[in-house]
Each structure stands twice: as structure tokens, then as C-alpha cells.
Amino acid sequence: MANALGRPIWVPHQGQDEARRAQLTHLGLGDDPITGKGLLPFHTDGDRGEYKTRYLILYCLEASEDNQGGETLIASTENIAGILPADIYQILTQHDATTRFRLDAEGHFKSLTYRVYVPESASLMAYFPYPKSETPHWATIFSGFSAASSRDILTNMEEVLTKRSFCAHHWRKHDLLIIDNEKSIHARQPLTHGYRHVVRVICR
Question: What is the spatial distance between Cα 157 and Cα 77, in angstroms, rounded to a whole number?
């Protein structure tokens, strides 16, 4: 599957017939989390089922000389058991998390429940919180924890991961970036000036 950032994608609404799909565009949401160019917090793509994602391939078709912001941020999640505080690691491996995604401006949502870290496969899947000043496109809550406590858990986890291994890629024309979705988390800074057009290919 490939899609261009800034162009429409098609996503089924929860509870609707599979044939009925809603078109999500940058214009439709103001800043759709996939096709937009605003802030996108750290996350891993897909799920562990039909939409399991191994690699992301990003290629910059165009970028203005004066473009500012819009960096892709990457942090490693390898050896997570050895770097996270014991209490956070226990929560990741013993409590399910549910992420609620906002699909469109009309208030359609979908939910995904999953175990954040599976030691047997060393597989991390997480959707980290938006800043409190931003309108969230998703929110994650751990079973048995409040929304505020879940935010604290993820914020502390993100801080540990980004302190250990972190890079920020500023896009220029013809740049190619390959991200291992099973061994890292990634994010997007808002594009504050100029333009860039990045194509994404998902490898499952």
C-alpha cells in the first residue's frame, strides 16, 4: 500500500459496512493525522493483525528550499526491557491498552485494544499522547488506569526512549528514509513554513 502525504486516503468507519468508506483529506480535518502536515506524536504504525507493519519507506518527491519544520523523529525501542523503569515495564507487559482514534471531523471513531509490549517477540506497539495544548487525533488508556495516569506512563516511557537513541530528519528533495517499525517509534514535527511532498510505502 502506498499513499502520498497531503492526498486523500480511504478509511472504513467503525460499525459501518465495509463498502462504505469515508474520504479523509487535509482540507476535511484541517490536519488529518495521516495526510496532514501538523504535529504527529511518537507512535508505531498499524496493529498486530491484518495491518501489521514491518517497514516504512518514506521518499521526498518535492520540498521548497525554505521549508521549516516537518521533521520526522525516530527513537529506538531495542532492549526496552533493560532501559525502562521496572514499574512501567510491568504495566506494558501485563495491562492492555486501548487507543481511540478520531477518523473525521464528524466525530467518527475507531478503537484498538492491544498489549503494548510482547517480550516473546520483542514487539512494541504504542500511540503516545498529544500535548495538552493540541486537539488529539488519538488517546490511549491502560486497563485499570485513569486517562491521566495513562498519559503519565506513556510520557515517562517516551522520555526514556528518546533520551537513549533519537534522531530528527529534515526533509530535502529526493531524500529516502527507511524505518524499522518493529524496533523504533517515530513522530512528525509540524511543517511551519514552505512545503514538502513525501510519499509513504508500508511493507508488511
Answer: 10
**What amino acid occupies position 59?**
Y
Task: Check if the beta carbon of residue 188 is closer than 8 Å to that of residue 200.
Answer: no
Q: How far apart are CA 15 and CA 42, in angstroms?
A: 28
Average pLDDT over residues 135-141: 93
Nearest to 6 by CA among 203, 188, 136: 188
Supply the mean pLDDT for the chain.
83
User: Which residues make Cβ contacts (< 8 Å) with residue 153, sequence separation at least 6?
Assistant: 88, 91, 142, 145
Give the span between the Cα atoms of 140 and 151, in whole angstroms: 8
Cell representation of residue 112: 484498538
CB 182 within 8 A of CB 48: no
Strand, helix or coil at 13? coil
Asked whether the beta carbons of 179 and 58 are under 8 A apart, the reply is yes
How far apart are the C-alpha atoms of 112 and 47, rounded to whole Å? Answer: 8
> What does the pLDDT look like over 161-175, one tens digit per residue?
999 888 999 999 999
Domains of the chain: 2-203 (3.60.130.10)
| Residue 12 β-bridge partners | 21
Please give the model's pTM, rounded to 2 decimal places.
0.82
